[in-house]
Amino acid sequence: MGRAGDWVQVYDVLLKPGERAPQVPEDTQGVPLEMRVKGFLEHDAMLGDHATVRTMTGRLVEGTLVAINPAYPHDFGQPVLELLVAGEEFRALLEREAEAQK
Prior knowledge:
- This protein has 102 residues and is α+β, with helices and mostly antiparallel strands.
- It has two helices and four strands; from the N terminus they run βαβββα.
């Protein structure tokens, strides 16, 4: 159960398939336009309940409560070895040039 003031995520379908703008690609028109917003819960609510959140910018947004204290699941992927090596090589080059100018 989420308590008023908890950090939560709400979900809603803003446009159903077929309600999308005609200029969007055909494959986009076939899927709903969904919204997921994180914010502070305005009132106590259970998962699955309709709830209102106040976002970090102060907007009030309504939707279905889907997560309490949601995580940030994104990351920057696997390290790129070539970039790691290039960074070391570039720093070494800068250090050599700085030494040569003394």
